Amino acid sequence: MSLDLNCGSGSSVTLRAHHQWRPWTGLTTATSERATLMNTASERTDAQPAVTVIGLGEMGFALADAFLDGGHPTTVWNRTPEKADTLVARGAERAATVRDAVAASPLVVVSVKGNATARDVLESSGDTLSGRAVLNLTDGTSTEARAMAEWVNNQGAQYLHGQIMTIAPGIGGADTVIFYGGSDAVYGGYRPTLQLIGGRGSLISADAGVPALYGMAVHGTMWGTLNGFLHAAALLSSEGIEVKRFLDDAGPSVAALLTSLPMIADEVDRSEYATQYGALQHHRPSVEDLVRESTARNIDAEFPGYTLGLVNKAVEGGHANDSYSRLIEHFRKY
Predict the structure, then answer these.
(1) pLDDT at residue 11 tops 80
(2) What is the rounded distance in angstroms from the CA atom of residue 48 to the CA atom of residue 232?
(3) 176 with 165: CB under 8 angstroms?
(4) How far is CA 48 from the centre of its chain?
(5) Exposure pattern of 245-255 as b/e (b: 16+ CB <10 Å)?
(6) How far is it, in rounded angstroms, from Cα 191 to Cα 194?
(7) What span, in angstroms and rounded, lies between the C-alpha atoms of 294 and 288?
(8) Is 41 within 8 Å of 191 (Cβ atoms)?
(9) Helices 280-296/210-237 angle, 10° precision
(10) pTM of the model
């Protein structure tokens, strides 16, 4: 998702949810579970624990490839078996069924399209899921992740959810961020294995739903920033100004925006928005200018117009002397 948005292999947007933390299960229990997991992992090999990867789309293929590179005995399964051909040629085992795939390894990694599909696939493994560690790297909502965690736990397995903050070519990168939530025992017991797919992975919560919220928060920040920049680029281009030249000249001003994020975060966390400088009433004239300039140049003014609407609503609601972070109240509906 540090304020680095690692969005692809070798590419990042420098920038970085309301969540509810759950208490840890306890050090003694977690340590015991971790020891059990590691003992099971060593049944297949004394060197590296065996791993099963279910789903060989672009991301799943990259995950299996990384585990093979790391020396792990790797079993793969995909609805279309031939997608595994390249991996099998490199030494992976192709499982004929999901049941066979799950039975092959103590760590089962799932990367498919949607959590409904993930559950359907795992259900077909029957009772072989019991005693395994499941790492679900499937995208979805926080509610879906929590439901998956509950279901997997009810099958006698342990659950870890991961939110990958890169595209497939970035898997295995030292700076690749993966947010994990769920079982401390799974994360701790398989941490060296997890490092193979993302060097900057971290367990952020015992709640399996939090990684999804982190991922969405990163992406929301990214898209908002990119949309703002592309609108600015259109404005500059209309005058014949090279966008790269703008960045060279205005780089310090753009970079300074990043330093405001911790301050905004603190104001939001405390719900305290009053400020002596940079209040909303002082933002409004500049936003109005941007809307008028955009309209005059036949640049789509919807994006800055939306911002102007937010500012006007807050100012007219009696918050003229509050900081920009006051606008959080517009987005909150709870």
Answers:
(1) no
(2) 50
(3) yes
(4) 27
(5) ebeeeeeeeee
(6) 5
(7) 10
(8) no
(9) 50
(10) 0.83
145 pLDDT above the threshold of 90: yes
Structure tokens at 221: 């920040």
> Dihedral of CA 312/314/319/321: which sign?
negative
Tokens of 77: 């399964």
Tens digit of pLDDT for each residue in 188-226? 999 999 999 999 999 999 999 999 999 999 999 999 999
Query: Would you place residue 333 in the very low, low, confident or very high pLDDT band (cuts 50, 70, 90)?
Result: confident
CA 293 to mean position of chain CA atoms: 36
Q: Where are the alpha helices (DSSP H) in 81-209?
A: 85-89, 98-103, 115-123, 142-154, 184-189, 191-195
Closest Cα to residue 12, out of 202, 229, 175, 174?
175
Q: How many other CB atoms sit within 10 Å of the CB of residue 292? A: 12
3-class state of residue 4 by DSSP: strand
Please give the mean pLDDT across all residues of the chain: 88
Contact predicate 128/99, CB 8 Å: yes
Distance of alpha carbon 326 from alpha carbon 133, whole angstroms: 43
Residues 264-287 pLDDT 10s: 999 999 999 999 889 999 999 999
* Token digits of residue 42: 């060593």
